[in-house]
Write a structure and sequence with these properties.
49% strand, binds manganese (II) ion, globular, mainly beta, 296 residues, 7-stranded antiparallel sheet
């Protein structure tokens, strides 16, 4: 008898969006967490907002969300359709379109704005994106802010065996292909397209929390019941493999990572370890210590 060397990560459950709201006037989002009370199960990820797909009429006044702060974590924006522009108080700015990813490290604190890009807004079009918040360990929460523009062309795209689909490695590695994102703690982030009736086995480290969000199609994990559009499949951290099977042509976001098992204290755009640190964050922001956006 063959010895089993890999163990499947068992399912915790399948979750639907727990809330729905507008971020500014440009990002109609459905939230998967924290609205589903999954802090421990999805750590190091803190938040998943699924924006669109929604069509926006042409306008000369780009929609979005104006100047606001962040401290204590990273915001990761993945664009599928549409074009998003960002600029922040650390002097970083960027425009990302379909296939691109923006990895913004707020850490000790930034002030930024996120808008539909001017030309895209002027023409009108569909917006389809995800914003993920990735926690920082206590030791890195007050590090210097950073910014990574990760273009489609920088992201390795791997054809799966016998035409089953395609996997883009944003962070971590897959079959020796390394993703371009620099992360503070070990993270695997894959954009996965899988054809109807096909499957892929993903080796994900023992101890890494793992969840899979379905943007389009229907899929199951380890032979579970099927999940559909805008649903999140969450697996246990124990085990070292998940097998994803698509019942329809599907697009999925695979999120895995080493959990940061430290206390989480949240207040709006700030995520720290204690209440006292949240008070300090509010005071520092109000005192202008997170900087300001320069007028254009
Ligand atoms: Mn923001």
């Amino acid at each position: 008898m063959a010895t089993e060397t890999t163990t499947m990560k068992e399912l915790i459950g399948i979750y639907q969006p727990g809330s729905q709201h507008m971020v500014g006037d440009g990002f109609p989002v459905r939230n998967l967490f924290p609205s589903n009370d999954l802090d421990r199960e999805v750590s190091p990820f803190l938040m998943l907002d699924y924006a669109g797909p929604q069509y926006f009429e042409p306008t000369d006044h780009p929609r979005g969300v104006g100047e606001h702060p962040h401290r204590g974590f990273e915001t990761v924006t993945i664009v599928y359709e549409g074009v998003v522009a960002h600029r922040d108080s650390a002097g970083n700015a960027g425009v990302i379109g379909p296939g691109d990813v923006q990895w913004m490290t707020a850490a000790s604190g930034i002030v930024h704005e996120e808008f539909h890009e001017k030309e895209y807004a002027r023409k009108g079009g569909t917006l389809h994106a995800i914003q993920l918040w990735v926690n920082l360990p206590r030791a890195s929460k007050m590090s210097a802010p950073g910014y990574q523009t990760i273009l489609n062309a920088d992201i390795p795209s791997i054809d799966l065996d016998s035409g089953a689909g395609r996997l883009r490695v944003i962070a971590g590695s897959f079959l020796g292909h390394k993703g371009p994102a620099h992360t503070f703690t070990p993270v695997e982030l894959y954009d996965l397209q899988l054809k109807a009736g096909r499957r892929v086995a993903l080796a994900l480290p023992e101890g890494h929390n793992t969840s899979i969000f379905i943007l389009q199609g229907r899929a199951s994990v380890n032979g579970s019941e099927e999940a559909g559009e805008a649903e999140l499949i969450v697996c246990k951290r124990e085990g070292s493999q998940v097998t994803v099977e698509a019942q329809e042509n599907s697009r999925l976001l695979v999120m895995a990572g080493k959990p940061i098992d430290e206390p989480i204290a949240r207040y709006g755009p700030f995520v720290m370890n204690t209440k006292a640190e949240l008070v300090e964050a509010v005071n520092d922001y109000q005192a202008g210590k997170m900087g300001h956006l320069r007028n254009q």
